[in-house]
């Protein structure tokens, strides 16, 4: 291998001219070079049309690479799961490509893979997404498969049994993964059992064990209608070119909108509580600290994302600088607002080494309190620039553009949303950042989750007196383990 | 709009049976030059978004580490972000974020890469930062910086290996595949004691040995003007002093002449089986065959192992096959997790039967076509992003480092398009030997009896 390296150097040298640099002044390294004028993102307009059956299509042309992304977004998410059928939307979505149209599961997978395309289906809290990514040259065949999967899933009983076994085994494997345990207890602690956000979208062992083919068919019939769906198309296509193909594939799909469920208002965390889940032998403690945030369409969205960037949304954020760079407690500390149609969680997190769990919690609480005190002008400027100026780079791939368009569709954002994003972020003021920090971050009303080796971390955590401390086992969080061989 | 760089001649029709060699061509035009200090430079224009990626590869990785200092190449990578001669600690990230930039780096056996993805107006900032740490890192180095990142890296090891179910398996596999004196024997993340032992003096020595411009390649891809960019590169990298010549590393042979059966206990519910073999190195003859073999065995529902173990018999939760290609030699790996109620011995027997079959009987034209078509589509996907890991700037440096030709995309893809089903079987028979492999059982703690039991059949 070193031989090919030597050849490489020789070849490279042969085709180039060395530049005579003798006499050139060394550059001024005393300060960073000045930045030129900020470039602007100029996206082509979002195109919208509807098929003859009323199915809405949103399209953005992107012609650099002969690829096409077609996402079907359906208002069919876990929040629509009936009581005791948690995981139904997710299982319905997972079963869409387990046989559809005239193909069984294996034939369908073979057809998609032979095209060099990928097709995935899944459900989140509010929507199901069937995502097709295909070379332009295979678009016609691929769209037909996408329509089969969306409109004509087979829901074969033996495939459901297979999926069920796989899912139940996954639940068993969650026991091995402290981050999974932390996610489950975090959602349940914040939202309780009466709000859909308290459950995992994939359900739980008892609900998944009870799902039937009839449940899946009913859910699909009730929810998968053109009135509840939008096609999102991005890539090397035009409206004129793709419209007849979409019409042929989706135009016969019938059904009207069925409305969105109204969610109960989640109840904010009332006091500061600590939940310590014992994971004996864990090399680190998984920390999750959070409370209920705010819906996506809040007027405070722009100042909130700037505030979070300062707190824990970037490498130079306070949490990461403190816990990673200053103290070396962790490989990384973060925070985020999980924006959803209803108020999703605010979450600060890190995996910290076991023997500094208490110290890490102290630093977390210091920063969470600190962000409600004040922010510097320099922090605000850096965070705004970071968010706004990197925004154009997110429009390089058809799949990431389609994901962005998904937000426009899901939240009814205006068509000039992308082109005005930079201006909205740059208009945020320091006073607004400080206002939203005080409004949405309250260190006295916050849930603290620690998943780690209780025997090693409990005394230190208890001594912090952060609030009522409750200890749990993995069984308390995930239910009793299956009997294994 | 700018399709010129992507010449496509697509096959006319989709046959219902094994269709191959669709003549997809991928060309990424570039300009290349070498500075007097030995720095190789590659420039590529892509005006899709006003973004530029500045990407640097140093041809050094964990394979160059000394015994007792494993994990050092990666620890060094971390230290590269902590400031340099004219950049105070913290400023590297603060300045880039304030310009709307992102950055990262990664360390592998053979190379270390760094990138900054910035709006085009911040290109010069990225060049200043990269050139400053290439030329003047030691001017601001201190034992305290080493200590700080030592703790971070130890936590990276805890998070990504020790606290992950099955996280220590990959380390055990390398230790058993390679002899103790082979540079792939130890993990890139390193051993805890070695991370503890790493010193300030080690940083100085490593930088002087391997971080000169003559051991590096700079690729810039994105919304650039090549002529102006060349002037900026000469301005910022021209004063970086050349480093010592880097000698070819004497590499001991990696020979495995037995089946090693290894058991490891972990905090897991379900036992998992790993099988691993030594295979041809990155881009060497046989490497593409092993990639396709991995797809035939473990890629998708119709792959032989997935269909048999997961889909039909439902005795495994997952199964995968992968060719881990590296410069000094590769490893081919099969991984399967037992479903509750099933044993690793069952899994091994079923896998063995499929291995025996693929070694005798070539894959069908459909199986090969499916794999090759997926590779072709994957190459198209690579054309979308200029930056980040695996973006075009990273790929140009990858190909330059290992072949000398930055635009090796088409040659790489052609390896797959040229394959015949018999080639795949021939390489499977040659390299996936029953008497030269590692079989690792990861079992729940206290249950060594759940390991895969060797079959008592003669072959």
Commentary on this structure:
The complex is a heterodimer of chains A (485) and B (459). Chain A is an alpha+beta fold. Helices cover 42% and strands 17% of the residues of chain A. Chain A has two domains: 47-250, Metalloenzyme, LuxS/M16 peptidase-like (Cytochrome Bc1 Complex, Chain A, domain 1, 2-Layer Sandwich); 273-477, Cytochrome Bc1 Complex, Chain A, domain 1 (2-Layer Sandwich). Chain B has two domains: 35-237, Metalloenzyme, LuxS/M16 peptidase-like (Cytochrome Bc1 Complex, Chain A, domain 1); 259-450, Cytochrome Bc1 Complex, Chain A, domain 1 (2-Layer Sandwich). At the A-B interface, α1, α3, β5, α5 and α11 of A face β1, α2, α3, α4 and α8 of B.
Brief overview:
The complex is a heterodimer of chains A (485) and B (459). By secondary structure, chain A is of the alpha+beta class.
Tell me the structural class of chain B. alpha+beta
Structural class of chain A: alpha+beta
The proportion of residues in beta strands of chain A is 15-25%
Q: Using the alpha-carbon principal axes, give the shape of chain A.
A: globular
Largest sheet of chain A: 6 strands, mixed
Would you tell me the overall average pLDDT of chain A?
93
Shape of chain B: globular
Q: Please, what is the CATH homologous superfamily of the largest domain in chain A?
A: Metalloenzyme, LuxS/M16 peptidase-like
Biggest sheet details of chain B: 6 strands, mixed
Strand and helix order of chain A: HEEEHHEEHHHHHEHEEHHEEHHHHHEHEH
* Number of helical stretches of at least 4 residues of chain B: 15
Second-tier CATH architecture of the largest domain in chain B: 2-Layer Sandwich
CATH topology of the largest domain in chain B: Cytochrome Bc1 Complex, Chain A, domain 1
Low-confidence stretches of chain B: 1-21
Q: What integer is the average pLDDT of chain B?
A: 93
Would you list the SSEs of chain B in sequence order as H and E?
EEEHHEEHHHHHEHEEHHEEHHHHHE
